Request: fold
Amino acid sequence: MRNMLKLALRGLLRNRRRSLVTLLAISFGFSAIVLFAGYTHNVYGGLARQSIHGEMLGHLTLSKRGMRKEGKLDPERYMLTAAEVDAITRLLKEEPHVEMVAPRLAFSGLVSNGRASTIFVGESIEPAAMERLQQNVLTEAEKKSGMFDRLRKQLDPAHPDVVELSEGLADMLHLAAGGQAQMLVNTLAGQANALDVSVGGTFNTGNAGSNDKFAFASLALARTLLDAEGRADRLTILLDDMARTDAMRDRLQARLQAAGFDVEIMTWQELSDFYNQVHGMFDMIFGFIFSIVLTVVVMSVANSMGMTVIERTREIGTLRAIGLKRSGVVRLFTVESMLLTLIGCSVGLLISFAVRWGVNMADISYVPPNSASRVPLLVDLDAGRTLFTFVLMAVVGTVAAYLPARRAARKDIIDALGHV
Reply:
């Protein structure tokens, strides 16, 4: 095998120009796949953090069965009562991997500055729970870009009448921090209820479609507006590790059903439509790019090996004449192709490391589609896809040399020696 590797390496060095061109095609194709995989990995991670911490979905969301559909028409019937909230919270906090359980209430209505009114969609949560959920929403690099200051929301536990408004909503009503507004909603019984509120600050939802209609309020304020003392429409559950999400969902679901609670638990991925849509789009783009690069690699290696076989036909005849079997000829050229592909992928990996470092250090930012703020352009290292691509390209590159090598090995020794 050692002699086979030496012969294969000498074969590559015999025509350095053609080998170099093929090697560069493999290298740049492999680095392009690795870089795009790293970029999508960073996007997935950012979207996951934004969904869990930024949108404050948590890892799991618990609600009474039917709340997501029938609850829109009859919210009082499908809300968790104060006794259910307390009992379920105690049960969940007994689990070792549950870090926080936060009651939530969604509400909507009209908000007015005294002169003009507009619709709003509100979310309520306890201020301490909001602070805990927003931890780890961004990486250090993302914090340095200035995103964190605009995305962060903060409620005052000492003043439950203070609300946070999205930037577009505050601009529409000409409200600034410290300004006064009025919120009008329907209670659970269908009666109108209004309260005076103070604007504590503004935030950016990160989504252009909701940045002009969103508001956050304390849970106490929402319960007063809705006349829903002690109630909640759902519980947001934060775990100590995102990787445990699915396993904990199944475990908690079984335990709550055994305790007699008719509830359903959904993961953040099931609730975040935007994450699922972006994930599916990038997976399709990755597959498209991967198929193109793989085709280029196969054609480059097959063309290189085909030319090599033609030029070395007399050499093949000589090797056959001194006793090398047909299988040995095939093995020689497939090993040569394998070496070429492995070296090309290794060089491509080094290129991707260099480009990744340069991109991450360049402080580049852009505005994604349907976003209201700029985000930094960062590239991670997706070890799983990188290893998969490396192995698959090595296998495909090796197989690409099989047909021309097999065709040369089947040629008669006399014809091969007399080839011109």
Q: What stands out?
A: The CA atoms of residues 81 and 116 lie 36 Å apart.
